[in-house]
Each structure stands twice: as structure tokens, then as C-alpha cells.
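pasting for ref. prot 1 ->
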Amino acid sequence: MKKLALLLTLLASFTAYAQGDAEAGKAKSATCAACHGADGNSLIAANPVLAGQHEKYLLKQLKDFKLGMTSGGAQGRNNAVMAGMVAPLSEEDMSDLAAYFAIQTPKAGSTPESSIPVGEQLYLAGDKERGIAACIACHGPRGNGTALSGFPKISGQHADYIKSQLMAFRDKQRNNDMNGMMQIVASKLSDKEIEAISLYVGGLH
């Protein structure tokens, strides 16, 4: 019991130490604003909403973009624009930016009625016959994901961005997902299904 208590204490200490400084992140976020908005609410549908996203997830993506740059795309997440953005960032910078955007308030999205028949079915139940896992299993009933497990919040996200990422996973152009789970799911989705899911998750809040 004493060993468990000590382990939990050390883990808590590490977690607290690893967290970024949101105020410092705000000061460093000026270069992010052009694409993602000053508060992380991107007005450009191709660029993701960062506001309210899990800090751990945001930090991982920044590190993966940097790894993609330093490995020539062999590892991490390869994106020419983001490679240029993360190039000058230190680990502390990335932690601070993740902390800042994580505490911003995301704007509410919406779910078009036309996306519900296909999108809702796949999100809530998947497709057992085709081996497609339900999205709700990892991203939750409201699309909030889970901070500790690293599953991102997708509710309120731009449909265009969700669509582009699902296609990237399906086409193996993005492979920084945990245990390849998103690649496996996306590989079994049609263009029509990807479109429906992308639109559906916007209003899960």
C-alpha cells in the first residue's frame, strides 16, 4: 500500500510538473492566430479548432509535427505548414501553447440533419459486420474524448478538417494515432460515410 501511495504521489508530481503555463502560452500564441484564431476558434474550416482541446493531445500533436519535420516525414506527423511553425519551438513553448489553447472556450458547432442517418449509426454503433468500431467508444457520447487516454475532443470541430483527417488516416498519409486505431477504422469507411461522420460530430455537445 505504501509503495502504491508513493507511486501515485510521484505520478501526480510529474503530471503537475509537465503541465504548461497558460499565461506564457497566450504570449506565445500570436503566430498561431492567423490560422487558428486568437482564442483557438479557427474561422477557416480547413484548420482545426484548438480551443478546449485536451492539453495532453495538443502537446502530442505539436511534438509529432516537430518529429515529422526532423525525421523527414518518416515519423510523427508530416505537415509542411506546421513544420515551419514548430521548428523554433522548445518543449516548454509547446507545453505553454497546449496549456493556453486547452483552457479557451470553444464555440458551439452544429449537426446538419442530412448527416444523421449515416453519421449517427456509425458514431453510436459502428458496423459489426464490417468490423468498424463505434466512434463513441473512444470519443464519448458528446464527442469530448478523454484527456488521460489521449483521445481528442471532436465535438464542434470543423467538418472539413475532420474529413481531411479521416481521409489522411484512410490513405495512410497520417499515422500518429495510438496503435493505428484510426487507420483501421478509416480504412473501412467510404467517402459518403466519412462525409456523414465529419458533419455529424459538429453538434454532439
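and prot 2 ->
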Amino acid sequence: MRFMFVGDSMTIGRAGDITWRYRMWQHLSTSFDGPFEIVGPRTELYDTEAGAPLSYAYGAADFPAPARRHLSGWGEGWLHMAPLIREAAAGAGADVLLVSLGLIDLGFYTDSDQTAANVRAFVTQARAANPAVRMVLLPVIPNVRAESDAPFAAEVARFNELLAKAVADLDQPSSPLLLASHPPTYDIHQDTYDGTHPSASGEHKLAAAFAEAMHQGWGVGGAYAG
């Protein structure tokens, strides 16, 4: 089974980060009953000094190069990934997409309705690459901006409702969709290093959200051990 991580800055990580992708790879390595592969067209981390994804300085030395593959980008959202996913998923032969997107869209590019439309376009394009592709979608976790910007917080909440509706509408037996649960104990003041991007505890909680969704929804892997 080929898994592809699709996300924004919370997923690509910056130079020196371990990333929740590493935590998920660890989880699959110990719980997945069968061969698996992490796939995707990119392997880089974001270099904050260069302002570009140029770094390979992962914080975990035992994270093997093939498992570092992904489709994620600093400052990229549903708006950016919808046009890319068909070629990326087809080229990598992706079977399962683990998707964490939306915060950057709502913060800078599109409102909740437009972002939800891009979710639906993403699903359509992913299925054009593989009609049997599975997808797990994580709701947007409000960041520190939502604490002081009420309209932004409202857009995040509304988008998460629209995301849940899209998952319900688009779910198919041949290409199932799962809506992961918001990590119940996620605290942006404890689980991030800047109010948005995950610290070590946040990485575990993001990985656990995807792991539990697959385990409970599809019987894939086991419960997240951390």
C-alpha cells in the first residue's frame, strides 16, 4: 500500500524538524500488517533562511530517504494542491492520501465556500489518477490567529462543516473518504512552537488523528501507540 502525505507548512516541516510524517512512518512500521511505501514527488523541508524548500536536514537520523517523500509545501493549500494531485498521485501510484490542508487557504487565499469547492476538485482529480484511491482528510485546526480574529475563526468553523459535508457527499465504496477527528487534546499553546506549527507533542497528535481514523474506519494499522 502506498501512502502519500499532502499538506501545508505543518506537514512539510522546516529544516531541523522531525515532522508528523516521521511519526506516522514509525507508526506504520510497527502496526501495518503488510508491505507499505511512502510516496510523493518531494522530499525537501522548508529552509526558513532561504525562504524555499531546499533543506534535507531532518531532525530524525533514522528517517530513511524513501520514507521522506511527500506532496506538501510551505504556504500551499487546497487551492494549490488540487491542480497538482492528479499527476502526483498517478506518478507515485498512491493508494492512500493523508491530507492536512485548509488553514493557509482561509488565512490568505479563499473563503470557506471557495476552499470547499477546491476540496471537491481535489477529490475529483485524485480519482482521475486512481479511481480506487482512499483519502483521509483532517479538519483545519484553528491557530493562534483565531483567538483574536473572530471572522477568521468563524470561517475555519464553517469550512470544517463544509469539509464534513463534502466527505459525506463524495464517499464511495470504491474510493472511500474518511474525516479524521480533530485531536481532542490538541492545545496550540502546548502542541505548537509558534501557535501554528506542531512541536513534538503536536506531531504525535496529528499522526494519531490519521492513524486512528484508518484503524477505526478501515481496519488499517493499529491504534496509535506514540
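Residues 213 and 219 are 9 Å apart (CA to CA).
The mean pLDDT is 97.
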